[in-house]
Amino acid sequence: MLGTPGVGKSTLAMQLAEKTGLEWLEVSRVAQQLGCLQEYDEVYQCPVLDEDKLLDNMEFMMGPGGKIVDYHGCDFFPERWFDIVFVLRTNNTLLYDRLTNRGYKVQECEIFQTILEEAQRSYKEEIVHQLSSNTPEEMEDNLNKMVAWVDCWRDSHKTSIS
C-alpha cells in the first residue's frame, strides 16, 4: 500500500490486517527496528533509509507471502514480492490540511503524482491500482475492495498458503 504521508495508508493497512489476518509490515517501523536508518537528512527532515539492508532483512519476511506492505515509496522493492499494489491518492487541499494539522512540512509529491508514477514504472501495469482516499466513505469502500481482493487471492492460492 503506497501513498504520500497523510493519505490514510497506515489506517487502511491496520484495518485490512484486522479483517483479513494478514501481517501488516509498516516499513518505516520495520526499518527502525532492524537498524536500517542512516544519518538524518536535514533537507527532508527524516532519516535516510539503507534500502539494501532493509531488503536483505525483509526478504525472509516476504518469502511466504500474505503481507501488507505500507510505505510511501516502492521503486526499490522487488516486483516478485507483490501480487497487487494499491496507491492511495488524496485531493491536494485535503492533504495539505491533514499534513499541516500533523505539523508536517508539506511537499509536492501528491501534486505531481510522484508515488503513482513510481509504482507504474516499477511494476506491471495490471497490478497497480489507484484508489481515491478523500473521505471516510471512500476509505471504507477501499477497505471493502481490498478485502474482496484478498479473498480472491486466497482462493487462488489455497494450496500454497496456510
UniProtKB/TrEMBL annotation:
GO terms for molecular function: AMP kinase activity; ATP binding; ATP hydrolysis activity. The keyword ATP-binding applies. Transmembrane segments: none annotated. Signal peptide: none annotated. ATP binds at G6, G8, K9, S10, T11, R102. Its main location: cytoplasm. Monomer and homodimer. Interacts with small ribosomal subunit protein uS11. Not a structural component of 43S pre-ribosomes, but transiently interacts with them by binding to uS11. Broad-specificity nucleoside monophosphate (NMP) kinase that catalyzes the reversible transfer of the terminal phosphate group between nucleoside triphosphates and monophosphates. Has also ATPase activity. Involved in the late cytoplasmic maturation steps of the 40S ribosomal particles, specifically 18S rRNA maturation. While NMP activity is not required for ribosome maturation, ATPase activity is. Associates transiently with small ribosomal subunit protein uS11. ATP hydrolysis breaks the interaction with uS11. This is Adenylate kinase isoenzyme 6 homolog. It comes from Timema californicum (California timema). The lineage of its organism: Eukaryota, Metazoa, Ecdysozoa, Arthropoda, Hexapoda.
